[in-house]
Write a structure and sequence with these properties.
This protein is mostly helical. The chain is 67% helix and 3% strand. The protein has 13 helices and 2 strands, in the order H-H-H-H-H-H-H-E-E-H-H-H-H-H-H. A two-stranded antiparallel ribbon has the order 1-2. Strand 1 and strand 2 form a beta hairpin. Helix 8 runs parallel beside helix 13. The radius of gyration is 19 Å and the shape is globular. The two termini are 28 Å apart.
């Protein structure tokens, strides 16, 4: 955790992830004995930044008191909606869900990697350029508009498949605690890998999930922890150190970005395999997410 903070701490202070992530960590640690409290905390975090919804989804599937967990989230949402209505902002409450639709493929996104290299090699007029309307660097070239259009449904499909995998493992007798933590990591990583936005602060999403996993089972979670350290170090070289060379299609920085994206895919693959194995192999019973 200290190593992660050295490389990613500056983003924690600069972005709202620095507020949401600690709340997620506390919520995940409460899941063992107080899943309703965990749901309240995770729901609050979701209204700060939407990604904790991935952790809530895993909790909903793994917890025994599923109805109470769901109701707690509904109550938090109702309070937020009421407060937004009273402050006159109800018409804009869903902006976070619709504003991403018109965006192109951001430079750092996992699925943008092919076009990053096309830009480096100057193939088919591919390029990296600023989207001044939203102050974002995006890739342009053959197929980028189609890819940007398809990323939203692709993300939905990936979430649905991840949910189906969690339900399959639960029905096959997976330990609920392990399923919660593995599922939280898998669904959070899905939101990063299948996102057409790849901002560096997204890597902060992984920290509370993996720290909670380490608390749950240090030995088993050493692999994702090591991957997270690699992701943090590489991301630090991308931003803030050498982002300017990257947006100018520097081949070395394109290679660094590719390494970061490969590490993210490896992390997703690890979590998917672990979640699958939970429904295949006998697991030791652990008391967590029992509710």
């Amino acid at each position: 955790l200290l190593i992660f903070l050295v490389f990613m701490g500056y983003l924690s202070f600069a972005r709202v992830e620095g507020i949401a992530a600690p709340i997620v960590l506390i919520g995940m640690l409460y899941a063992a004995r107080q899943p309703v409290v965990a749901s309240v905390l995770l729901s609050i975090a979701t209204w700060i930044k939407v990604w904790p919804a991935a952790v809530i989804l895993s909790l909903l599937i793994a917890a025994k008191k599923r109805a109470q967990v769901f109701l707690a989230g509904v109550v938090v949402t109702a309070v937020v909606v009421l407060g937004t209505w009273l402050s006159g902002g109800l018409a804009r409450i869903a902006d976070f869900m619709v504003n991403q639709g018109s965006r192109g493929m951001q430079l750092e996104a996992t699925f943008s990697t092919p076009w990053v290299w096309l830009s480096v090699l100057n193939i088919a007029d591919s390029k990296i350029a600023d989207n001044t309307a939203i102050n974002s660097s995006e890739v342009y070239g053959p197929g980028t508009e189609v890819a940007a259009y398809l990323m939203q449904p692709l993300l939905i499909v990936a979430v649905v498949l991840g949910t189906a995998l969690l339900i399959r493992s639960l029905r096959r007798g997976a330990d609920r605690g392990e399923l919660f933590y593995e599922g939280a990591l898998m669904m959070t990583t899905v939101l990063i890998v299948f996102n057409k936005v790849g901002s560096p602060q997204f890597m902060i999403w992984l920290a509370p999930v993996i720290v909670a996993g380490l608390v749950y089972d240090w030995k088993r979670w050493r692999t994702p922890a090591a991957l997270l350290m690699g992701i943090a170090v590489v991301t630090f070289f991308i931003y803030p150190l050498f982002y300017t060379p990257l947006i100018h299609a520097n081949p070395i920085m394109a290679g660094v970005l590719t390494i970061r994206n490969v590490l993210l895919v490896l992390l997703l693959a690890w979590s998917v395999k672990r979640t699958w194995d939970l429904g295949t192999k006998p697991q030791p019973a652990r008391e967590v997410a029992q509710g």
